[in-house]
Amino acid sequence: MPFQKGNQLGKGNKGRKASKKTKDKLSKSIEKAYKKGLIFGFQKGHKGYKNEGQFKKGNKPWNYVAGKSIPRRISNPKWIEKAKECYKRDNWSCQDCGKKGGKINAHHMNPYITYPELEFELDNLITLCIACHNKAHGGRR
């Protein structure tokens, strides 16, 4: 019987060494099926191979804006400087709940993806703690 798609090569034999005779039988079986035109889902480069893009299905992320990509600001020196200025201006405390210290974020009051000209404007930034920052984004972070 040729190898068929979905057939799991004997889970009970997992880890066990196959004899040369068994390997030859499997090889001939697969070769015969391959000649008949069967496509195997585990062979890279064939139609049935599902590795690339298999996790790219479904809805777009909540912050997706068509035609615009979100650059990594976290490592941008200009952004780091503006965030520090924002923290210093707000005395290193959350402007929503008043919590001082801990993990804080510089939050854009007007989203920078919609208003790119306000991305580095200090007047558009506010210091928020992690919990308040999550609330500001509707619990999506």
- Helix fraction bin: 25-40%
Query: What shape does the CA trace take?
Result: elongated
Structural class estimated from helices and strands: alpha+beta
Ends apart, CA distance between termini: 52 Å
How are helices and strands ordered from N to C?
HHEEH
Q: Can you count the helices?
A: 3
Which band does the percent of strand residues land in? 5-15%
Low-confidence stretches: none
Arithmetic mean of pLDDT = 77
Question: Any overview of this molecule?
Answer:
26% of the residues lie in helices and 7% in strands. The protein is of the alpha+beta class and 141 residues long. The longest helix has 16 residues, at 20-35. 9% of the residues are buried. The model has no long low-confidence stretch (mean pLDDT 77).
Annotate the secondary structure layout.
Blueprint: H1 20-35, H2 77-89, E1 104-108, E2 125-129, H3 130-136
Antiparallel strand pairs: 1-2
Sum up the structure in keywords.
141 residues; alpha+beta; two-stranded antiparallel sheet; 3 helices; 26% helix; elongated
In short:
By secondary structure, this protein is an alpha+beta fold.
